[in-house]
Design goal:
Blueprint: H1 2-25, H2 27-37, H3 48-59, H4 68-93, H5 100-131, H6 142-152, H7 163-191, E1 196-198, E2 204-206, H8 208-237, H9 251-262, H10 264-268, H11 272-305
Antiparallel strand pairs: 1-2
Helix pairs in contact: 1-4, 1-11, 2-11, 4-5, 5-7, 7-8, 8-9, 8-11
C-alpha cells in the first residue's frame, strides 16, 4: 500500500512539474495563438514574427508572459491530475479491453477530461488575461477576472464557458497524444538504440533526447486533429470580452459561425502554424521532463528506503 502511495505521489509531482516546464517554455507562442484565434484587432492581420515584435514593443519582454501566472496556477494541478488519472484509468481499462490502441485512447481521454474538469475556470481566466493588450486592459488580475465573469456573465457557470468543446477536444488531443507517445516510446525501447539507456535499477528507459522525440511526434499528430475544437473553445471563452461574443453561445453554433465567416484555413485552422511551433516543443518538453523527473524521484525514494 505504501509503495502504491509513493508511486501515485511521484506521478503527481512529476506530472505537475513537467507540465509547468512545458507551458512556460512556449508561453509567448501560447499568448500569440490566443490573440490570433480570437482575432484581436491589433494583431489579426500580422504574421508570427511581426506580431511577436509588436508585443515586445508595446509591452516589453513580460508581455510574452501575460496571463502566465494564472496558467501556472492551473497547469500544475492539471498536469499532476492528468498523469495520475491516466495511470489509474490504464489499470482499470487495460484488463477489460484487449485492444491496445483503444485502451490507451480511452484512458488518455478520460484523464484529460478529469484534469480539465477541476481546473477549467483558470483556463478561462488565463485566456482573458492573455487576450487583453497593454493599452486596453479590462482585468487587473486573476481574482478580478473571476469576480467580473461571475458578476456580469451569468454567475459561476460562466467560468465553464467552452467546456463542452474542450472535453470533445480531449479525445484527439490528450487521448491520442498519450496513445501516440506510448506507441513511439514502446517502439524506441524495443529498438534499444541511442535513444535509450539502462537506469540504476537495470531497466531500459528513454534518454532525454528520446523523450523529446516521442513527445514531439505525439504532439504534432494529436494537435492536427484537435485544433478546430481548440479554436471553438477559445472563441467561447472570450465571448464576454469581444463585441460579437453573442454569436458564440454553444459549441455547434460557434463551430458553424467560425466556418461560415472565415472558412477552414482562416477560421477553424487559424493560427495552426503557431500551434505547431508551440505544441511540438511543448509536448516534447512535457513528456521528456516527466520521464526525467519520475526517474530522479524514484531513485531518491529508493535511496532513502535502503
Amino acid at each position: 500500500m505504501e509503495a502504491k502511495a509513493d508511486h501515485v505521489l511521484l506521478t503527481f509531482v512529476a506530472g505537475g512539474i513537467s507540465t509547468c516546464c512545458a507551458k512556460t517554455s512556449t508561453a509567448p507562442l501560447e499568448r500569440l495563438k490566443i490573440l490570433f484565434q480570437a482575432k484581436n484587432q491589433h494583431y489579426k492581420d500580422m504574421g508570427v514574427v511581426r506580431a511577436l515584435r509588436t508585443i515586445y514593443h508595446k509591452e516589453g519582454a513580460l508581455g510574452y508572459y501575460r496571463g502566465n501566472g494564472a496558467l501556472m496556477l492551473r497547469v500544475f494541478p492539471y498536469g499532476a491530475l492528468q498523469f495520475v488519472s491516466y495511470e489509474q484509468y490504464k489499470k482499470i481499462i487495460s484488463p477489460i479491453c484487449d485492444n491496445y490502441a483503444l485502451s490507451k485512447l480511452v484512458s488518455g481521454s478520460l484523464a484529460g477530461i478529469t484534469a480539465c474538469s477541476f481546473t477549467y475556470p483558470l483556463d478561462v481566466v488565463r485566456s482573458r488575461l492573455a487576450f487583453q493588450v497593454a493599452d486596453e486592459q479590462i482585468y487587473c488580475g486573476v481574482c478580478h477576472v473571476i469576480r467580473q465573469i461571475i458578476n456580469t456573465e451569468g454567475g459561476f457557470p460562466a467560468l465553464y464557458r467552452g467546456y463542452g468543446a474542450t472535453t470533445l477536444a480531449m479525445i484527439p488531443a490528450v487521448g491520442f497524444g498519450f496513445f501516440a507517445y506510448e506507441s513511439f516510446k514502446d517502439c524506441i525501447l524495443a529498438m534499444n538504440g541511442s535513444l535509450t539507456k539502462v537506469n540504476t535499477e537495470g531497466q531500459t528507459v528513454l534518454t532525454p533526447v528520446g523523450g523529446l522525440a516521442c513527445g514531439a511526434l505525439a504532439g504534432a499528430s494529436s494537435q492536427t486533429v484537435a485544433y478546430p475544437l481548440d479554436v471553438v473553445r477559445r472563441r467561447m471563452q472570450l465571448a464576454g470580452a469581444v463585441s460579437d461574443g453573442y454569436k458564440y453561445s454553444s459549441c455547434i453554433n460557434t463551430f458553424v459561425t467560425v466556418y461560415m465567416e472565415d472558412g477552414v484555413r482562416k477560421g477553424l485552422y487559424r493560427g495552426l502554424s503557431i500551434n505547431y511551433l508551440r505544441v511540438v516543443p511543448q509536448v516534447a518538453v512535457m513528456f521528456s521532463v516527466y520521464e526525467l523527473t519520475k526517474q530522479f524521484l524514484s531513485q531518491e525514494t529508493n535511496a532513502r528506503s535502503e
